[in-house]
């Protein structure tokens, strides 16, 4: 995959935050993709535009993410995205466990039970320079 990505908090004026970047993401699958298998997908990106209010976001997010996931399309899936900022003590890990709701409720739903955990910097572009950890649970429409 390759492309151009825009990330914004959707606000205007003094509260506005935004970044634009180009990226490339090679994807490697190991094993049978219709069953349990491992996927490795590094994402390298270059910032094209950074709003002045978050000019040092590179220090916290860096230039590369590494996604590692293991699971099955019709079963559980565990995914972790690792990010390393430019400065030595900044980075993050974002983990997500998903399971098809159709396996729990015997329905044709395409949604997933979702459990997520984030620890580090740069989760969003408003408070990117604040360390946070958060655990969440909910429903996802895709994985």
Mean pLDDT: 93
* Uncertain ranges: none
Instruction: Encode the helix/strand succession as letters.
Output: EEEEHEEEHEE
Helix content: under 10%
Structure description:
By secondary structure, this protein is mainly beta. It contains two helices and nine strands, in the order E-E-E-E-H-E-E-E-H-E-E. Strand 3 and strand 4 form a beta hairpin. It is globular and about 50 Å long. The mean pLDDT is 93.
Key features?
single chain, 143 residues, mainly beta, nine-stranded antiparallel β-sheet, 2 helices, 9 strands, globular
Secondary structure layout:
Blueprint: E1 2-8, E2 18-24, E3 28-30, E4 37-50, H1 57-61, E5 64-71, E6 77-84, E7 91-100, H2 101-105, E8 112-120, E9 132-140
Antiparallel strand pairs: 1-2, 2-4, 3-4, 4-5, 5-6, 6-7, 7-8, 8-9
């Amino acid at each position: 995959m390759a492309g151009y990505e825009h990330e914004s908090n959707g606000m205007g004026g003094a509260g506005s935050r935004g970044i634009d970047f180009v990226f490339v993401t090679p994807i490697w699958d190991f094993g049978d993709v219709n069953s349990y298998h491992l996927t490795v997908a590094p994402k390298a990106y270059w910032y094209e535009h950074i709003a002045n209010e978050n000019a040092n976001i590179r220090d916290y997010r860096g230039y590369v993410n590494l996604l590692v996931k293991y699971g099955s399309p019709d079963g559980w899936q565990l995914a972790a995205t690792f990010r390393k900022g430019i400065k030595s003590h900044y980075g993050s890990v974002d983990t997500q466990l998903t399971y098809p709701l159709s396996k729990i409720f015997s329905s044709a739903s395409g949604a997933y039970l979702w459990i997520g955990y984030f620890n580090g910097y740069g989760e969003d572009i408003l408070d990117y320079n604040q360390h946070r950890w958060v655990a969440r649970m909910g429903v996802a429409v895709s994985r």
